[in-house]
Amino acid sequence: MDKVFRALADPGRRRLLDRLHADNGQTLGELCRHLKMSRQAVTKHLKLLEAANLVAVIWRGREKLHYLNPVPIVEIADRWIGKYERGRLRALADLKKQLEGETDG
Amino acid sequence: MANSRFVYVTYIRTTPEKLWQALIDPEFTQRYWCETRHEVSSHKGGAWRIMAPDGRVADSGEVLEIEPHRRLVLSWRNEFMPELREEGFSRLTYELETVGESVKLTVIHEMDKPNSKLIATVSTGWPHILASLKSLLETGEPLEETTRWPKGF
Q: How many CA atoms lie within 13 A of A74 on its CB side?
């Protein structure tokens, strides 16, 4: 769980996850094209995200594809969110998003 | 994108044998997968299906590859939502790999068409099902939210 929080505690890595959330299953090259980061920086961030299991990787032929893996985030959420709160929290989060617009957080 | 695909990974402190059992044993699946019973043929070319608690077949298909405790590939079609059923068969792959004290479970759900509604729909459920499976195997208790078939489904 420490690894997940450490991995998420960086705006660059959160942007990387945002890119995968928008378009899942990208190669390193595709990710670099849309991010203002060096290839080395993206590679380093991906390694950390993979170690935290927030990014899953599969090979298709010679292509290494990166996927956003939300399973660890669900595990963390479940630890502190009770079963009855879930629906109300979803409604509150939707309202906040509507009023404020999407933000990087 | 030429196809639709999601990839999920979870590390579970268990053995490949126990995890395999959890994936194919209906008594087990109903505990972490919304009361559904999964009936899986033990041979390639055999049938498999997910039974909803009300007796309907929720999803079904064929066993495409089976290598006990290591790999299971299924063709998968939704059977109870017409707009998903008409998309035809998707493909589900489970891969089990021992990593230290844990088993790495990789789940790949894909369809050879862009913007599949089936893949988009199941992707909202998979992370919860997998988190619940992990919790059940490690602590004996599934996640509360996956213990009931959703109302109105």
A: 25
Top CATH class, B4-146: alpha beta
Q: For A56, which of B1, B106, B144 is closest by C-beta distance?
A: B106
B10 CB neighbours in chain A (<8 A) are: 53, 71-72
The residue to which tokens 């913007």 are assigned: B115
d(CA B149, CA B50): 12
Question: Within chain B, which residues score under 50 in pLDDT?
Answer: 1
DSSP string of B100-113, one letter each residue: TTEEEEEEEEEESS
Question: What backbone torsions phi and psi does residue B99 show, to the nearest 5 degrees?
Answer: -130, 105
For tokens 């090979």, name the residue. A59
What's the pLDDT tens digit per position in A50-100? 999 999 999 999 999 999 999 999 888 877 776 566 667 777 778 788 888
Which residue among A23, A71, A83 places its CB closest to the CB of B130?
A: A71
Q: Which stretches of chain B are DSSP H helices? A: 16-24, 26-32, 82-85, 117-123, 126-139
Write the CA distances from A105 to A18, A70, B28, B147, integer angstroms: 11, 17, 39, 32
Q: What is the DSSP string of A40-99?
A: HHHHHHHHHHHHTTSEEEEEETTEEEEEE--HHHHHHHHHH--TTHHHHHHHHHHHHHHH
CA–chain centroid gap for B108, Å, is 10
In the structure encoding, which two tokens stand for residue B106, read together? 């990789």
ipTM of the complex in this document: 0.87
